[in-house]
C-alpha cells in the first residue's frame, strides 16, 4: 500500500471519526440543549399565562377593595338602600370595571343584592341574573369562611374560581368595612369575571400568546408552583400546561399550544452543522491530500526517478536534484553523499584495477622472460657450446630415460661412439680454430644423420661423439654407421696429415642391446667403446660392432 493511499485512508478515517463525533455531539449535547431551551421557553410562556390570570385576579381584587372599604357600601349593606345601587351599580359600571358578577352578601352569606351580566362583543348587555345569580351565590358564598375576622379586617380578602353553569368565574371577595378600614365588617363584596372565550381571547391578545383554560376540580391537594405538563403533539407543536392555583387551591389548568421552532432550529443546526463539518472535512481531506502529494509524494517520486535513472545509467557522477530544504532534501543530500563515496570508491577501484593489470602484465612479462631464461638455461645446461649438440649431462639423462623405457617395451637400444681419426694431427696441422670448425662440421653431419625424434647426437668429449638410437637394431645401426662414415668422407674436409686418407675420417664403435635388469647403460657404452677401439686398432676410417657383455661377465 503506497504512502499516498495510507495517508488518504488515514485522513478519510479521521474525517469520518470527526463527522461521527460531531454528529453525536450535536445529537447528544447541542440538540438536547435546544430541547432544554424549548422547555424553558414553554415554561416561561405558560408562566406568562398564569401571571396574566393572576394579574386579572389582582385587578378584580383591587376593584373589590375599593368597593368594600367605602362608607356608602357600608351603609348600603346595613340599610339595603336602593339609592346606592341605582347611583353606582348600573350595567355600565360592570363594563367599566371589567366584571360580570357582583354580589353583596350579608354576614350569613345571603345576597343583599346581586347581578350577573354578559356583555356580548357586538355591544349592549344581557342580564343573566335570573339564570345564574342563585348558582353564583351558592358557589361563592362558602368562600367567606376563608376570611379571618379576628385579624386586621382591612387586609382580609379571598379569591377563587367557581363554575357557574359550566363557565369558570374568577372572583375576589372582601369584607365590607368603613372607608378608614375599620370594622366591624358588615357583609361581603364579591366581583367576578367570566373566564369565557371572549376574555381568554382578549388576554391572549394582550400577552400575544394563545391559550386555553380548563377548570380543575379541587382535590384538596395543593398544586406545586412548578407543576408543568409538556406534551409533544407533533414535529412542530407542543402543548404546555400549568395549574393556576389561588391561595393554594388548584383552580384552572392553563394550556398553550406552542411552536417547536427552537427544536426545529436545533435539528436544522444539527443537520447543517454536521453537513458543514462533513463538507469541511472532505474539503480539508482533499486539501491535505493535495498538500501531502505536493510536499511529500512528489519530491519522493522525483528522488525515486533520479535514483532509477542514476542506477540504470550506472553513472555515479550524476546527482539527485535537491528541491526542498526538508527531510526529503536531507535524504537526497545523503543519497548524493553516498553517490560521491561510490564514485570515489569506483575511481579508486578502477585505479587499483589498472595498477593490478599493469602488475599482472609485468608478471606475465617476467614469467615469459623467466621461461625464456629457463629454456636458455636448459639449453645451455644440456648442449655443448661449440657444436650445439647435446652435452654429457643431456646424454646421460637421455640414456637413462631410453634405458628405462626400452627395458619395459623390450625394444633394442643402439649406441654409436664416433671418434675423429688423428685429430691431434689436424689441430697441429691446421690450428686449433680450424679444429673447432672441423668439429662443428662433423657435429652437423651427425645431427643430420639421426632422423628419429627419439634419437640423440651428443658430444661425448673432445673429438668423440655418442649417438643414442632407441628402437634401432644391429642391422639398422650398421647401415647408419656406414652412412655416417660415407657422409664424413663425402664432406671432404682436408686433413693431409691423416695417414689413412688426405681428408678427415672417422671411426665408429657400435653396440646394440635390449635393455634388461642384468645389464647397465655403462655396459652398452663400454661395448661401443670396445668396438671403437677395435676399429682404431684395425686401421681406422671404419665402423665395428661389439655385443654387450655384462660387468659381471
Ligand atoms: N681443436 C680442438 N681440438 C680438440 C678439442 N678437443 C680435443 N681436441 C684434440 O683432439 C686430439 C685428440 O688426440 P688423441 O686422443 O691423441 O687422438 P688422435 O690424434 O685423434 O688419434 P686417434 O684417435 O688414435 O686416431 C687432441 O690433440 C686434442 O687436443 C677441441 O675442442 N678442439
From TrEMBL:
E.C. no: 2.7.7.65
Entry-linked Pfam families:
CHASE4 (PF05228), GGDEF (PF00990)
Q: Which InterPro entries match?
A: CHASE4, Diguanylate_Cyclase, GGDEF_dom, HAMP_dom, Nucleotide_cyclase, Rev_trsase/Diguanyl_cyclase
Molecular function (GO) terms for this protein are: diguanylate cyclase activity
Name of the protein: diguanylate cyclase
Q: What class of enzyme is it?
A: transferase
Limits of the HAMP domain = 294-347
Question: Which GO terms fall under biological process for this protein?
Answer: signal transduction
Q: Which UniProt keywords apply?
A: Membrane, Transmembrane, Transmembrane helix
Give the CC-aspect GO terms.
membrane
Record-annotated GGDEF domain positions: 411-548
**Is 4Fe-4S given among the entry's keywords?**
no
Cofactors per UniProt? Answer: Mg(2+)
Indicate yes or no for the key word Nucleus: no
Which domain of life does this protein belong to? Bacteria
Q: Which SMART domains match?
A: GGDEF (SM00267)
What PROSITE patterns does its record include? GGDEF, HAMP
Q: Which segments cross the bilayer?
A: 269-292
Amino acid at each position: 500500500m503506497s504512502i499516498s493511499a495510507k495517508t488518504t485512508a488515514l485522513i478519510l478515517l479521521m474525517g469520518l471519526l470527526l463527522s461521527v463525533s460531531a454528529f453525536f455531539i450535536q445529537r447528544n449535547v447541542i440538540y438536547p440543549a435546544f430541547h432544554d431551551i424549548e422547555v424553558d421557553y414553554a415554561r416561561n410562556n405558560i408562566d406568562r399565562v398564569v401571571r396574566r390570570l393572576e394579574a386579572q385576579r389582582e385587578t378584580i381584587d383591587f376593584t373589590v377593595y375599593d368597593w368594600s372599604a367605602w362608607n356608602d357600601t357600608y351603609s348600603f349593606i346595613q340599610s339595603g338602600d336602593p339609592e346606592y345601587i341605582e347611583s353606582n351599580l348600573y350595567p355600565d359600571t360592570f363594563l367599566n370595571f371589567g366584571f360580570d358578577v357582583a354580589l353583596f352578601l350579608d354576614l350569613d352569606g345571603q345576597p343583599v343584592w346581586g347581578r350577573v351580566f354578559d356583555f356580548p362583543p357586538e355591544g349592549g348587555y344581557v342580564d343573566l341574573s335570573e339564570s345564574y345569580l342563585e348558582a353564583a351565590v351558592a358557589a361563592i358564598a362558602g368562600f367567606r369562611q376563608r376570611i379571618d375576622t379576628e385579624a386586621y379586617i382591612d387586609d382580609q380578602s379571598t379569591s377563587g374560581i367557581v363554575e357557574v353553569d359550566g363557565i369558570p368565574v374568577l372572583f375576589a371577595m372582601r369584607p365590607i368595612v368603613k372607608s378608614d378600614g375599620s370594622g366591624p365588617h358588615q357583609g361581603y363584596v364579591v366581583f367576578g369575571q367570566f373566564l369565557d372565550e371572549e376574555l381568554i381571547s382578549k388576554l391572549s391578545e394582550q400577552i400575544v400568546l394563545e391559550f386555553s383554560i380548563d377548570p380543575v376540580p379541587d382535590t384538596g391537594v395543593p398544586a406545586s408552583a412548578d407543576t408543568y405538563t409538556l406534551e409533544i403533539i407533533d414535529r412542530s407543536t407542543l402543548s404546555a400546561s400549568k395549574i393556576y392555583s389561588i391561595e393554594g387551591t388548584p383552580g384552572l389548568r392553563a394550556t398553550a399550544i406552542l411552536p417547536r421552532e427552537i427544536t426545529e432550529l436545533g435539528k436544522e443546526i444539527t443537520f447543517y452543522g454536521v453537513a458543514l463539518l462533513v463538507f469541511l472535512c472532505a474539503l480539508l481531506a482533499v486539501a491535505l491530500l493535495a498538500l501531502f502529494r505536493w510536499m511529500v509524494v512528489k519530491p519522493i517520486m522525483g528522488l525515486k526517478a533520479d535514483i532509477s535513472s542514476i542506477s540504470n545509467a550506472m553513472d555515479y557522477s550524476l546527482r539527485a536534484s535537491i528541491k526542498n530544504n526538508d527531510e526529503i532534501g536531507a535524504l537526497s543530500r545523503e543519497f548524493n553523499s553516498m553517490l560521491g563515496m561510490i564514485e570515489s570508491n569506483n575511481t579508486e577501484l578502477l585505479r587499483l584495477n589498472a595498477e593490478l593489470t599493469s602488475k599482472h602484465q609485468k608478471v606475465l612479462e617476467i614469467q615469459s622472460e623467466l621461461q625464456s631464461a629457463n629454456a636458455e638455461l636448459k639449453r645451455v645446461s644440456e648442449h655443448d657450446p661449440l657444436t650445439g649438440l647435446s652435452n654429457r649431462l643431456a646424454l646421460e639423462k637421455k640414456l637413462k630415460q631410453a634405458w628405462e623405457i626400452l627395458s619395459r617395451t623390450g625394444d633394442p637400444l643402439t649406441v654409436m661412439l664416433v671418434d675423429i681419426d688423428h685429430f691431434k694431427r689436424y689441430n697441429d696441422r691446421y690450428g686449433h680454430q680450424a679444429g673447432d670448425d672441423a668439429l662443428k662440421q662433423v657435429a652437423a653431419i651427425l645431427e643430420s644423420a639421426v632422423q628419429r625424434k627419439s634419437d640423440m647426437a651428443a658430444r661425448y668429449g673432445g673429438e668423440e661423439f655418442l649417438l643414442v638410437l632407441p628402437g634401432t637394431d644391429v642391422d639398422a645401426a650398421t647401415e647408419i654407421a656406414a652412412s655416417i662414415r660415407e657422409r664424413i668422407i663425402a664432406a671432404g674436409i682436408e686433413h693431409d696429415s691423416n695417414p689413412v686418407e688426405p681428408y678427415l675420417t672417422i671411426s665408429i664403435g657400435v653396440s646394440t642391446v635390449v635393455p634388461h635388469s642384468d645389464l647397465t647403460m655403462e655396459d652398452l657404452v663400454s661395448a661401443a667403446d670396445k668396438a671403437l677401439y677395435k676399429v682404431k686398432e684395425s686401421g681406422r676410417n671404419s665402423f665395428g660392432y661389439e655385443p654387450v657383455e655384462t660387468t659381471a661377465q
